[in-house]
Amino acid sequence: DSKGTVYPVSYTMTNLAGGWKVRNVIINGINIGKLFRDQFADTMQKNRNDLEKTIAGWGEVVAKAKETAKAEESGAK
Fold first, then answer.
1. Which branch of life, at top level (predicted)?
2. CA-based torsion, 45, 47, 50, 56: positive or negative
3. Does residue 23 contact residue 33 with C-beta atoms inside 8 Å?
4. CATH number for domain 9-76, candidates 1.10.287.70, 2.30.29.150, 1.10.10.10, 3.10.450.710
Protein backbone atom coordinates (compact mmCIF):
# COMPACT_ATOMS: atom_id res chain seq x y z
CA ASP A 1 0.00 0.00 0.00
CA SER A 2 1.01 3.66 -0.13
CA LYS A 3 2.19 3.57 3.50
CA GLY A 4 4.88 1.00 2.74
CA THR A 5 3.27 -1.69 4.86
CA VAL A 6 5.00 -5.05 4.59
CA TYR A 7 2.79 -8.13 4.35
CA PRO A 8 4.19 -11.62 5.00
CA VAL A 9 3.87 -13.93 1.99
CA SER A 10 4.59 -17.62 1.76
CA TYR A 11 3.99 -19.94 -1.15
CA THR A 12 4.36 -23.52 -2.27
CA MET A 13 5.40 -24.59 -5.73
CA THR A 14 5.45 -27.86 -7.61
CA ASN A 15 7.45 -29.00 -10.61
CA LEU A 16 5.10 -30.24 -13.32
CA ALA A 17 6.44 -31.46 -16.65
CA GLY A 18 9.72 -29.64 -16.10
CA GLY A 19 8.15 -26.30 -15.19
CA TRP A 20 7.53 -24.76 -11.78
CA LYS A 21 3.93 -23.85 -10.95
CA VAL A 22 2.59 -21.99 -7.93
CA ARG A 23 0.44 -24.35 -5.92
CA ASN A 24 -0.72 -22.04 -3.13
CA VAL A 25 -0.07 -18.59 -1.69
CA ILE A 26 -0.64 -17.34 1.85
CA ILE A 27 -0.67 -13.56 2.25
CA ASN A 28 -0.73 -12.03 5.72
CA GLY A 29 -2.19 -15.27 7.08
CA ILE A 30 -4.89 -15.57 4.39
CA ASN A 31 -4.67 -18.87 2.54
CA ILE A 32 -5.61 -17.91 -1.02
CA GLY A 33 -5.91 -21.51 -2.23
CA LYS A 34 -8.30 -22.43 0.59
CA LEU A 35 -10.26 -19.22 0.05
CA PHE A 36 -10.86 -20.07 -3.62
CA ARG A 37 -11.63 -23.73 -2.84
CA ASP A 38 -14.21 -22.67 -0.25
CA GLN A 39 -15.76 -20.10 -2.61
CA PHE A 40 -15.93 -22.68 -5.39
CA ALA A 41 -17.50 -25.30 -3.09
CA ASP A 42 -20.07 -22.76 -1.89
CA THR A 43 -20.91 -21.78 -5.47
CA MET A 44 -21.22 -25.45 -6.47
CA GLN A 45 -23.65 -26.00 -3.61
CA LYS A 46 -25.70 -22.94 -4.60
CA ASN A 47 -25.81 -24.30 -8.17
CA ARG A 48 -26.90 -27.77 -6.98
CA ASN A 49 -23.54 -29.27 -8.01
CA ASP A 50 -23.96 -28.15 -11.63
CA LEU A 51 -20.32 -27.79 -12.67
CA GLU A 52 -21.04 -26.07 -16.00
CA LYS A 53 -23.27 -23.47 -14.35
CA THR A 54 -20.68 -22.89 -11.62
CA ILE A 55 -17.86 -22.38 -14.10
CA ALA A 56 -20.02 -20.14 -16.30
CA GLY A 57 -20.76 -17.88 -13.32
CA TRP A 58 -17.28 -18.01 -11.77
CA GLY A 59 -16.25 -14.62 -13.19
CA GLU A 60 -19.16 -13.03 -11.36
CA VAL A 61 -18.11 -14.68 -8.07
CA VAL A 62 -14.56 -13.35 -8.46
CA ALA A 63 -15.82 -9.87 -9.37
CA LYS A 64 -17.99 -9.78 -6.23
CA ALA A 65 -15.02 -10.87 -4.11
CA LYS A 66 -12.93 -8.04 -5.59
CA GLU A 67 -15.67 -5.51 -4.86
CA THR A 68 -15.95 -6.72 -1.27
CA ALA A 69 -12.18 -6.52 -0.79
CA LYS A 70 -12.05 -2.99 -2.20
CA ALA A 71 -14.94 -1.89 0.04
CA GLU A 72 -13.24 -3.37 3.10
CA GLU A 73 -9.95 -1.72 2.14
CA SER A 74 -11.66 1.66 1.72
CA GLY A 75 -13.37 1.29 5.08
CA ALA A 76 -10.06 0.51 6.79
CA LYS A 77 -8.44 3.76 5.66
1. Bacteria
2. negative
3. yes
4. 3.10.450.710
